[in-house]
Design a protein that fits this description.
The structure is a single chain. The protein is α/β, with parallel strands linked by helices. It has 2 domains: 353 residues, ANL, N-terminal domain (Rossmann fold, 3-Layer(aba) Sandwich); 128 residues, ANL, C-terminal domain (GMP Synthetase, Chain A, domain 3). An 8-stranded mixed sheet has the order 15-14-11-9-10-17-18-26, with helices on both faces. It has a 7-stranded mixed sheet with strand order 8-7-20-19-21-22-23, with helices on both faces. The longest helix is centred in the N-terminal third of the chain and has 17 residues. Bound molecules: 5'-O-[(S)-butoxy(hydroxy)phosphoryl]adenosine.
């Protein structure tokens, strides 16, 4: 159906009214607006339309949003040139689309429900009008601290509303946010600040997580000893305990914010202006700062949230992720707000004060959509149903899963005990790089199957590659997962290192985006993600590069070399197993494992601690000197009968030692 947009207030008008509009001399642009997918037939039809004319399809999605100026060119570039643009020449503002656009129609509606760590504190309801005001004030505060368009602002915070508000404030003035998860170490924070030369750091005095106080400011102080680019540190108070404040560098948020006006019109952004940097781990080297840009990311976050979750006007949507990860960017902040939804943000942890916390919040807030990670499901399942049965969970309509493959048992438990067998589970596959969900059921529309991410969203063309690097054409297949054409949400580059971007994602299969994941495809086209095929480990849904952990372990004075492997872990999905060659067997003391944990925690963060270690005199190497990880993986999983061919090793005798207890 053809619709027309009149002026800039985004009202849609039937063609018959056009004549009238024309006579009244209104500015008219022709656009084709793509509706929310309503049925599986509708999905198939939109998929076909996207296949027939990909660019037109994305234009029709983008036309639902507010653009101050329309694009000159809807799309350019491909995975051969690796420089991709969407809606180039267009002008917009993401915070405007998340906030201002809703003020007239939903101003009093709750935009954000904030749930404190402390269950005794009442949840805070923040309306679209209030959020708009708080974002504007925060934005002016940033300006008062010298932040200009294009400057990088780093966030190292607990899950307080100011984290979301601050991120939106950056988007409002065109500053580039870089959120660093509050569990990372001083060294990891410093590396991330220095890589993008952030100007301002926003942090908390303390992070509140269950009964623990996380010393965010102390860690930040340590990081800042080696961060010359930071000129101001804004500290939001969360706990009565004191922290050190450095004169001329550190400022209390409460005081600074009060000085700022609440009037801050949204800056005009170019579609391809940088929006945020988010660091993630890969198989080699230091973490990569994926750069997402404005117009394409906005369109993709809007489109995927609306179609996958099928949230209705009075629903309450809760994603349990931390804003320090991409899930919290796209599906706590941008996606829900772009759609005018009510989004929940939770400061605490699922197991405190007890393992019923999630379900208590679901009942208290009448949550309709609940989106979490398999690791949390497994951890709560292990605690037993006594923590679930006190709650009715009757408000729930849709459940989601993200971050790692969900095993069948966890899927069934979630479906039965949380969803009461009436809530569809959307198993959403995507990545930091993809910006938003790529392969997933659409809630209530796509038939689900345990462990299957099912079908790609319209506009997404996944393919499986064989060992020769060719696309597998027969439907039933298994191979490495690639994506064929650019979509608006794809990260445009690795910050300040475009060559690494090319090398990492586009060199294995020239012309395709390589995801790093393996997948199986059924005859019907249904897709099941089998997990990473590269040297990336997924621990509790957190992506960790084996090389990073090895580098950290190798800094220990008694370590010569190490090899880090992921092995199946009943709760975390994968655990970290480190094989270690020491300087001498005599140098290993009883507390060696503890010491390794300490260095890893210091270099990366406690999420990267090795669960198990094995001290060995050598590692299995190929003749070219590469570690044969396949063998280590089998050893780590105790699958000794299937070590495979070890005769080609440079040092086959080492196998004997590896399999010894
Ligand atoms: C990796 C991306 C996507 C946001 C959170 C993680 C794994 C993610 C699924 C899923 C199987 C999944 C993949 C992917 N993954 N979702 N539904 N089923 N695996 O983002 O930190 O960039 O990690 O997480 O291995 O490559 P990320």
């Amino acid at each position: 159906m053809l619709f027309y947009k009149i002026g800039s207030d985004n009202k849609i008008c039937h063609p018959l009214l056009l004549l009238l509009a024309y006579q009244e001399n209104l500015f008219i642009t022709e656009v084709y607006i793509m509706n929310k997918i309503q049925s599986f037939d509708d999905y198939l039809s939109q998929y076909e339309q996207s296949k027939a004319n990909l660019v037109k399809y994305w234009e029709s999605i983008a036309s639902n949003l507010e653009w101050f100026k329309k694009w000159d060119s809807a799309h350019s570039g491909d995975f051969t040139t690796t420089s991709v643009t969407w809606f180039d020449g267009a002008e917009t503002n993401l915070s405007y689309n998340c906030l201002d656009r809703h003020l007239e129609t939903r101003g009093e509606k709750t935009a954000l429900i904030y749930v404190h760590n402390d269950p005794k504190k009442a949840p805070e309801h923040i309306s679209y009008i209030q959020l708009h005001q708080r974002v504007s004030q925060f934005a002016n505060m940033l300006k008062n601290h010298g932040v200009e368009k294009g400057d990088r602002v780093c966030f190292y915070m607990g899950m307080t509303p100011e984290l979301m508000i601050g991120v939106l404030a950056c988007a409002r003035i065109g500053a580039v946010h870089s959120v660093v998860f509050g569990g990372f170490s001083a060294k990891a924070l410093a590396d991330r600040i220095n890589d993008c030369e952030a100007k301002v750091l926003i942090t908390n005095d303390w992070g509140l997580r269950g009964d623990k106080l996380i010393p965010l400011k102390n860690v930040a102080d340590e990081a800042l000893e080696s961060c010359p680019s930071i000129s101001s540190v804004i500290v939001q108070k969360s706990a009565p305990e004191n922290v050190m404040m450095k004169d001329g560098r550190d400022y209390w948020f409460e005081t600074e914010n009060q000085k700022a006006s609440t009037d801050c019109p949204a800056e005009t952004q170019q579609s391809e202006d940088p929006l945020f940097i988010l660091y993630t781990s890969g198989s080699t080297g230091k973490p990569k700062g994926l750069l997402h840009t404005t117009g394409g990311y906005m369109t993709y976050a809007y489109h995927t949230f609306r179609n996958v979750f099928q949230v209705e006007e009075n629903d309450v949507y809760w994603c349990t992720a931390d804003i320090g990860w991409i899930t919290g960017h796209t599906y706590i902040t941008y996606g829900p707000l772009l759609n005018g939804a009510t989004t929940v943000m939770f400061e605490g942890v699922p197991t405190w004060p007890d393992a019923g916390r999630f379900w208590q919040i679901v009942d208290q807030l009448k949550v309709t959509h609940f989106y979490t990670a398999p690791t949390a499901i497994r951890a709560l399942e292990a605690k037993g149903l006594d923590y679930v049965t006190p709650y009715s969970l009757e408000s729930l309509k849709v459940l989601g899963s993200v971050g790692e493959p969900i095993n069948e048992e966890a899927w069934e438990w979630y479906h039965k005990n949380i969803g009461k067998e009436k809530c569809p589970i959307v198993d959403t596959w995507w990545q930091t790089e993809t910006g938003g969900i790529m392969i997933s059921p659409l809630a209530g529309i796509t038939e689900t199957k345990p462990c299957y991410a099912t079908y790609p969203l319209p506009g997404i063309f996944p393919v499986l590659m064989d060992a020769e690097g060719k696309e597998i054409v027969q439907p039933k297949a298994e191979g490495n997962l690639c994506i064929k054409h650019p979509w608006p949400g794809i990260a445009r580059t690795i910050y300040a290192d475009h060559n690494r971007y090319k090398e990492t994602y586009f060199s294995t299969y020239p012309g395709y985006y390589f995801t790093g994941d393996g997948a199986k495809r059924e005859e019907s086209g249904m897709i099941r993600i089998t997990g990473r095929v590269d040297d990336v480990i997924n621990v509790s849904g957190h992506r960790i590069g084996t090389a990073e952990v090895e580098d950290a372990i190798n800094t220990h004075e008694h370590v010569v070399e190490s090899a880090v492997i992921g092995y199946n872990h009943p709760i975390k999905g994968q655990g970290i197993f480190a094989f270690i060659i020491p300087t001498s067997m005599d140098s290993i003391q009883e507390n060696f494992h503890q010491e390794l944990n300490t260095v890893v925690t210091k270099m990366i963060g406690s999420i990267a601690k090795p669960e198990k270690i094995k001290v060995v005199s050598g590692l299995p190497k190929t003749r070219s000197g590469k570690i044969m990880r396949r063998i280590l993986r089998k050893v780590a999983e105790g699958d000794l009968a299937n070590l495979g061919d070890t005769s080609t090793l440079l040092n086959p005798e080492i196998v004997e030692e590896l399999i010894k207890d």
